[in-house]
């Protein structure tokens, strides 16, 4: 476990068990795919945020465990659908569910996870939480569709890029924190500040993810280097590089995005480095991490708040 997991170790383990329990289905294929995803591990950062936020305000009931599992089910459902849309074959160092079982079962099990999440929301009984999470799932879907529209379009702007990552990534980080504040009956100031913390943290994580596609390696990433380029995704390192390279170099990048081609991957990696694309993207991530940490000032000092600061620092120091 990473340091920021340790302060909520018992709750985190309880959430993992709850996830397994809630995967129960009379249909074997649902359980098989569900358990395959759970066993793949991952940092479970979104449910972790629920636990840390709740504990930072002294929450002592048990509903935060269900809320954390709900957030993870929503996230996992989006990953299942994403891998189908992107035709991905590798995630977290293992074959994707669609690579093992095919697209149709992956989509349908994703739907199962969404519906199970909403069943669990009903059990919590908070209309406020249901409103936030129903809106969030809608926003995530919009972000995914917009990303699909932007694919293979080298003219996507930096503003459009940030709109997409706000919706497809930051929204669920934000919802994890805000719904935890609802459970705690937090003040309006605390609720807004922790929602901002989650949003900035999510943006930072996505920015770093987008740099790792050009500076990581497949073994540590758990996916293939250059996957974003192969899918024609105009991420910030590429957008910046095209704006700060020669016309000939920009054309190389633009053509690769249009074609979804990794034929010139090594050249493009060189260009995103030499143009400052990677440095600029890291700088943007650092700015959002700083804003995230500033948002934590509304919380009383505690080991949980310190862990949230550590998590923000981890967002920009990680290599996978």
UniProtKB/TrEMBL annotation:
CDD domains annotated for this entry?
Answer: Trans_IPPS_HT
State the needed cofactors, names only: Mg(2+)
Name of the protein: Polyprenyl synthetase family protein
Origin: domain of life? Bacteria
- Mention any Pfam family matching this sequence: polyprenyl_synt
Keywords from the UniProt entry = Magnesium, Metal-binding, Transferase
- Assigned protein family: Belongs to the FPP/GGPP synthase family.
Recorded hits in SUPFAM superfamilies, A to Z, give: Terpenoid synthases
């Amino acid at each position: 476990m990473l340091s920021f997991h340790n302060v909520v170790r018992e709750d985190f383990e309880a959430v993992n068990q709850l996830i397994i329990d809630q995967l129960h289905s009379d249909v074997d294929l649902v359980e098989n795919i569900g358990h395959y995803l759970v066993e793949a591990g991952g940092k479970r950062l979104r449910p972790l945020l629920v636990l840390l936020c709740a504990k930072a305000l002294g929450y002592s009931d048990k509903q935060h465990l269900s809320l954390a599992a709900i957030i993870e089910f929503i996230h996992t459902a989006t990953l299942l659908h994403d891998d189908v849309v992107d035709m991905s074959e590798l995630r977290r160092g293992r074959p994707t569910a669609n690579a093992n079982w095919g697209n149709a079962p992956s989509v349908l099990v994703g739907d199962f996870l969404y519906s199970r999440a909403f069943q669990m929301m009903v059990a919590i009984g908070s209309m406020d939480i249901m409103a936030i999470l129903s809106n969030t799932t809608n926003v995530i879907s919009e972000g995914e569709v917009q990303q699909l529209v932007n694919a293979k379009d080298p003219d996507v702007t930096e503003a459009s890029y940030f709109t997409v990552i706000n919706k497809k990534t930051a929204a669920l980080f934000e919802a994890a924190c805000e719904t935890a504040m609802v459970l705690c009956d937090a003040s309006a100031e605390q609720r807004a500040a922790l929602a901002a913390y989650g949003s900035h943290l999510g943006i930072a994580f996505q920015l770093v993810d987008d740099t790792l596609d050009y500076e990581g390696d497949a073994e540590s990433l758990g996916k293939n280097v250059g996957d974003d380029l192969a899918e024609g995704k105009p991420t910030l390192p590429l957008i910046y590089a095209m704006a700060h390279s020669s016309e000939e170099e920009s054309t190389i990048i633009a053509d690769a995005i249009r074609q979804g081609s990794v034929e010139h991957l090594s050249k493009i990696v060189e260009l995103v480095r030499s143009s400052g694309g990677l440095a600029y993207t890291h700088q943007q991530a650092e700015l959002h991490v700083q804003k995230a940490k500033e948002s934590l000032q509304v919380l009383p000092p505690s080991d949980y708040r310190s862990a949230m600061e550590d998590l923000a620092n981890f967002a920009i120091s990680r290599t996978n």
